[in-house]
């Protein structure tokens, strides 16, 4: 089950262009950072027209999401059917903690791309992967605390991992990734009792 998207079957030439475009975009991000990612440069590097890029991805944030997608699919597979404690088979609190720690690492790994994607529109963070994370945490919270408002608690656990907040804390306030994870564990411990 894929929580991000269920892609439609692509034409062979469209699939080939997608691979070229994403490779070119990844190379540009690796060389110049997310700030250097322009639709015109990506189109030129991929050997496609700018119109093709806009039709395919919409804008820079759509391109950012496409770059994020492969890593996102790996992450989803790990928490849905991977080994414990992230995947099934561990205690519920161990699974929630493993999920939050892995999501922290996953967010930090592609922080600039997620920052661009999550701030593209007022509700850009929500839907797709966020809905999958929310559903997963809601299920685990319901197991951990039957009768609790798992829907709201899942949002509370996900809120500290919004890319803009995480970037601000890590880059502007000197908070470490380890401290973020410890804080999430403290938050989790608060409703574990």
From TrEMBL:
Record-annotated DNA-binding residue ranges: 38-57
Keyword Ribosomal protein attached: no
Keywords from the named record: DNA-binding
Keyword Chaperone: no
Record-annotated HTH tetR-type domain positions: 15-75
Domain of life according to the entry: Bacteria
Single GO MF annotation: DNA-binding transcription factor activity
Entries under InterPro entries matching the protein: Homeodomain-like_sf, HTH-type_TetR-like_transc_reg, HTH_TetR
PANTHER family xref list: HTH-TYPE TRANSCRIPTIONAL REGULATOR RUTR (PTHR30055), POSSIBLE TRANSCRIPTIONAL REGULATORY PROTEIN (PROBABLY TETR-FAMILY) (PTHR30055:SF209)
Protein name listed in UniProt: Transcriptional regulator, TetR family
Source species taxonomy: Bacteria, Bacillati, Actinomycetota, Actinomycetes, Streptosporangiales
